[in-house]
Amino acid sequence: MSQAPSPLGTPVPRREGRDKVTGTARYAAEHTPEGCLYGWPVPATIARGRVGAIHTDAALALPGVRAVLSHDNAPALKQPDDPILALLQDDRVPHRGWHIALVVADTLEHARAGAAALRIDYEPTGHDVVLSEDHPGLYTPEIVNGDYPAVRERGDADRGFVTAPVQVDATYTVGALHNHPMEPHAATARWTEDGQLTVHDSSQGSTKVRDSLAAAFGLRPQQVTVVSEHVGGGFGSKGTPRPQTVLAAMAARHTGHPVKIALPRRQLAAVVGHRAPTLQRVRLGAELDGTLTSVIHEVITHTSTLKEFVEQAAVPTRVMYGSGHSRTAHRVTALDVPSPSWMRAPGEAPGLYALESAMDELAAALGMDPVELRLRNDPVHEPDSGRVFSSRGLAACLEEGAARFGWYDRDPRPAVREEGPLLLGTGVASATYPVYIGASSASAHAAPDGSYRVRVNATDIGTGARTVLAQIAASVLDTPVENVRIDIGSSELPDAPLAGGSSGTASWGWAVHKAATALLRQLSERPGPLPAEGLTVLADTEQETSTASPYARHAFGAHFAEVAVDSRTGEVRVRRMLGVFAAGRILNPRTARSQFTGGMTMGIGMALTEGSTMDPVFGDFTESDLASYHVPVCADVPQIEVHWIDEEDPHLNPMGSKGIGEIGIVGAAAAVGNAVRHATGVRLRNLPLTPDTLLPYLL
C-alpha cells in the first residue's frame, strides 16, 4: 500500500476562510462582555509642551458618560517596557496626537461626544519635526533596528569610488509611510475580582502583549490572558502593544466594567508607528565591464524623543552585491514626531529602492543591460560577513524572471516606445530579506479516536498560519490535514513569538514539527490503546535557536514591471508585474501566492500613490486617513504574476522554509521606478511618483 503524499507543498485552502466570509470569525472589537463600556481616546492638539488643565465638567454632564481619565486620575502604571505605553501618567506632550485623556461612556457615540466636550488648556513649547540632511541633531547610533551595527566598512570605500572609471552618486528620498490595516487597532479588556486581566486585542503576538501588560500593571504573566484569535492585517503596526491595549485595561480597572476601545483611523498615524522617512545617498563605483569596486550607502532618518528606532535602510546593501570596498552607515536625529516603528520589510523596502535605483542608473551609465549588471556582481559569499550563503537563488530568479517576462525583447533605449500619448517602459530590481527564526514552544496531542490537536500561540494576521501549521503537523504524523486541529491566538497556549519579520511559520512551525515528531515517537513506542485523555507532548526550540547559524541565510527575488505613463497628465499605470522568488520550500502554494502578491501590491503603492508629509507648523502628518493616504485599489493593480524556484536549503529548519511575508515588497517599488525612467527618460528619485511630480518633465 503506497503512502499518502505529504500535505506540505500542496495548495490547501485556508481553514478559517469560510468563517471570515460568513462573519463568524470574531475580531477584537467584536467581543462585547456584559456591561461593556466604550472608550474614546483624546489626542493632544499641540506638537510639544504640557497639558495645563483638562476641564471635564461639560463632558461628565453629558448622557452616558461615565468617566474621564487623564494624568489627574488614571491608574498609576509601573515602568512599561515601551515608552509609548506610559499613557496618562504625567502632563507632558511629546508629539501631536499623543493621547492625553480617555472618555468612557455607555455607548461609542456618547464617548465620542464626551471627548468633543472636553476643554483643554495647553502650555506649548517650540517644536522641531522636519528631517533634513544637515539637521544639527544628527548623530550616529550604535545599532539600528534588528540589532545591526549602524556602520560597517570594508576596505577604503571613498578611494575605491573616486578612482572608479564609472561612477553613480545619487540621493533618494522616501517619505513617511503608514501601515493602515483594515481592522482597527482595538482592544476589549475586563478584570475579575481576583485581579485577573483578560484582553481581546488586535495584535500580531499575544504573548508579547501579555508580558507588556504584566510589566505595566505590576502583575505576574499568569494573571494576564490576551486573545488575538483573528487579526485583520497589521503590516508591523500591531507587532508590539499599542495604546488601545493599555488604555482599555486602565479604564476597565478604573470603572470596574469591561471597556472596549477601537482607535479612530485618523489617530493611527500618530500612535501606532510609521515607516520613518529616509534620505539615502548611494555611490557606486564600477569598472568598465560593470564589476563593482566600491559601494557606499549612507542613510539619514528620524526617530522620536520618546525612544530610538532607526530604520536599517543600508543593511540590505551589505548582502546584495559584491565589491572590493564598501561603507554602509546610518545617522538619525530625534524630533518631536510620533515614534516610528515597523512597517512591512522595515529597512529592506526603502533601502533596496535606493540601491536598486542606483544600480539601474549605473547600468545606463555603462550601456549595460540591468539584468546582466546584477548577475555580474552576484557574490559567492555574503560580502559583509564573508559567510557562505545557505542558499542564494538571486541569479536563478533574475534569469527565470527575464525569460518569463520577455525582458530581452525590449528596446533598451529610454523614451522610444509609444502608444499614442502613452510612453511605455520596463524595469527590473532585485530583492533580498533575511531569515529570522525565534524560539517557540508548541504541544501536540493524540486522541483515542485517531485525531490530533496542536496548540501554539501563533497569530494569523491573514497569512494562513492555521492552515500551514496544520500541514506541518499532518506531514509529520502522516495523517490527512483535516485530521489535525490547530489552536492559536491566545496567551494561554504554549508561548510563541509574534508574527513579524517573516519569521512566523519558520519559528512556530519548527516547534510544531518537533512536538509532532516527539508525539509520533511516543505513539510508536507505546503498547496498547491510548488512555481516554489521550497523549500530549510539549516541545520548544530554545536550544535549536540559541546559537547563530554559521551560514548567511536570506531569501531572494527579482521583480519585473511594465508601465504606461500618460504624457498629457503624468499619470502612471502599471500594466504588468512579474516576480520570481527563492524562499526555500514553499509550504502552501495558495497562501504563498497571496503573500507574494500582497507584497508586490504594497510595492506599487510605495512607488506611485503612498506618501505622507509632515506639517512643520502643526507638527503632524497631513495624510491621516484613507481619503488622503492613497493605497492601491483594484483599478491600480494589474494581473500580478508570481513564480518561485525550487530551492532546497538544509540549513534553515526541518521544513526547509524561508519567510515570504516581506520579500514580495522588497524591490518592487524600484522595479516600477526603473520602468518609469525607461518609459520617459526621466529619473526622479523621490517617492511616490505622482502625476504632479512627473508632468513638468513631460511637457
What's this model, at a glance?
By secondary structure, this protein is an alpha+beta fold. It has 17 helices and 28 strands. Helix content is 25%, strand content 25%.
3D architecture notes:
By secondary structure, this protein is α+β, with helices and mostly antiparallel strands. Helix content is 25%, strand content 25%. The chain contains 17 helices and 28 strands. It has a seven-stranded mixed sheet with strand order 3-5-1-14-11-12-13, with helices on both faces. A six-stranded mixed sheet has the order 9-17-16-15-10-28. Strand 19 (418-419) and strand 20 (422-434) form a beta hairpin. Helix 15 (589-608) packs across helix 16 (668-680). The protein is globular. The mean pLDDT is 96.
Taken from the alpha-carbon principal axes, the silhouette is: globular
- The tally of helices reads 17
Percentage of residues assigned to helices:
25-40%
Spatial sequence of strands, sheet with the most strands: 3-5-1-14-11-12-13
What is this structure's SSE topology?
Blueprint: H1 17-22, E1 37-43, E2 49-55, H2 57-60, E3 65-69, E4 92-93, E5 99-105, H3 108-117, E6 119-124, E7 143-144, E8 148-149, E9 151-154, H4 157-162, E10 166-174, E11 186-191, E12 197-201, H5 206-217, E13 224-227, H6 243-255, E14 259-262, H7 265-271, E15 278-286, E16 292-304, H8 317-320, E17 325-335, H9 348-366, H10 370-376, E18 389-391, H11 394-405, E19 418-419, E20 422-434, E21 441-446, E22 452-455, H12 465-477, E23 484-487, H13 504-525, E24 535-540, H14 542-545, E25 552-566, E26 572-582, H15 589-608, E27 640-644, H16 668-680, E28 686-687, H17 691-694
Parallel strand pairs: 1-14, 10-28, 12-13, 16-17, 18-25, 22-23, 26-27
Antiparallel strand pairs: 1-5, 2-4, 2-6, 3-5, 7-8, 9-17, 10-15, 11-12, 11-14, 15-16, 19-20, 20-25, 21-22, 21-24, 25-26
Helix pairs in contact: 9-16, 12-13, 15-16
